[in-house]
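Notes from hallway chat w/ T.B., transcribed later so I don't forget. T.B. wanted the structure written out for a chain they're using in a teaching module, and asked if we could keep both sequence and structure tokens in one place. Agreed to drop them here.
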Amino acid sequence: MYDGGKPRVTESRDKVRGDAARIWLYMVETYKVKITPAQRKMFEEWSAADPVDDFERLRDTRINAAQGNRNPFVN
């Protein structure tokens, strides 16, 4: 957000950074969302530091059941 002064920056908590990163990487690959090389590197680092957990696998399975597609960064 920008309020005319210094831009405000937020980041995800450590325990969900990998989840957020894999969502972003999916959006980049599937919908061609543009990110910078630095952002891609950060998301790849976040994904490696916070591996896929059971909740994320279950979420991906449910999305697949509803939409018929999976996030390749989760599987």
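Follow-up for T.B.: The first helix runs from residue 14 to 31. Might be a good example for the class.
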